[in-house]
Amino acid sequence: MDPQSQTTSLQRLQNVEKRIVRVLELAGGVMDEMANPSGPRKELVNNHCSEFMQLIKDIQVTLREEIKSACEYRPFEKCDYVPRISNEICHKKLEYVIAQLDEMKQTIEGCRNAA
């Protein structure tokens, strides 16, 4: 793997990280809106949710591509340490994001049930 493609891969993963931060900001914005005493603004919640879902899809596609690329790259025939560790890190990050999404879903459902 040449240095340029490594830089490109690193940049793509950094962009994923920025998207994850944005996803969390959107989720926080929706939670703030749901807690608004005068009630949530439907258009704002819908816009946040739409952007949230699009970013999740973009993150998923990019991570799949990066994982696939890491699996295809074998600088030494029997050495898969770097791709394996990269995949494990990506997997743990995805598990964390999924757990956070599940918690947000439960909170939203709790708010809906309370209303």
From TrEMBL:
Where is this protein localized, as stated in its record?
Nucleus
Q: Which UniProt keywords apply?
A: Activator, Nucleus, Transcription, Transcription regulation
Quote the function comment for this protein: Component of the Mediator complex, a coactivator involved in the regulated transcription of nearly all RNA polymerase II-dependent genes. Mediator functions as a bridge to convey information from gene-specific regulatory proteins to the basal RNA polymerase II transcription machinery. Mediator is recruited to promoters by direct interactions with regulatory proteins and serves as a scaffold for the assembly of a functional pre-initiation complex with RNA polymerase II and the general transcription factors.
Output the Gene Ontology cellular-component terms.
nucleus
What protein name is recorded for this chain?
Mediator of RNA polymerase II transcription subunit 11
Coiled-coil spans are none
What is the primary gene name for this protein? MED11
Query: Belongs to which family?
Result: Belongs to the Mediator complex subunit 11 family.
Signal peptide extent: none
Q: Where does this chain mainly localize?
A: nucleus
Under the heading InterPro entries, the entry gives: Mediator_Med11 (IPR019404)
- Gene3D superfamilies per the UniProt record, alphabetical: 1.10.287.3490
Transcription regulation in keyword set: yes
Query: What assembly does the database describe for this protein?
Result: Component of the Mediator complex.
